[in-house]
Amino acid sequence: MTHYFDNGKVTTKAVFDSWGGASAGVDWAVVLGSTLKTPEGDKPTGSVLANKRHVALVFSGSWCPWCRAFEPMLEDMYKKVKANDPNDTEIVYVSVDADSVAFDEATRGKPWPAMPYDISQGNRAAPVGLVQRKTREKSDKTIGTLKEYGLGSVPSIVASDGKTGSLVCKNGRQELGSKPEDDCRVVVLVWAIRGI
């Protein structure tokens, strides 16, 4: 099944084709916000994701034991992808952390960029990320505009074509057990590092 996107939002093929389809490209700043938090500081989203063949959104939270168990494997895979081809895939961390302090701790020292916490959690506008159910129950926040991906748990990874925004992979991780200490495999990035 093919999924069509208009600036990162699910749409129909007719709408997709009406603005030139794949040739028009996605504006990642519209989808993810104008800046991303990188290891070097805040940078424009467009420059961080320029020329990337794939953009993988990682929905994760520091409160989640499965996320903490999954992260070292993801980081190892990320380093292999970057060593093989720096422009193949960029991961963007999308926080489901409880607050900005937890977000800052979760992103400190990580090699990938992150969507700013306030944008992810909708602290000044509609949330773009995935808002925890308990947070939604205590506030008037919605699940987030990325609900189109049908995310049900974290960690979750969705990967899109870096130029068009078209969904490439919706299930970017595979659980192989029922406990955090059970093994997980990073599935979404395997195509990007063939031979490694």
From TrEMBL:
Record-linked Pfam families: Thioredoxin_8
Name of the protein in question: Thioredoxin domain-containing protein
Ranges for domain Thioredoxin: 1-148
PANTHER family: NUCLEOREDOXIN
SUPFAM superfamilies linked: Thioredoxin-like
Organism domain of life: Eukaryota
Gene3D superfamilies assigned to the protein according to its UniProt record, in alphabetical order: Glutaredoxin (3.40.30.10)
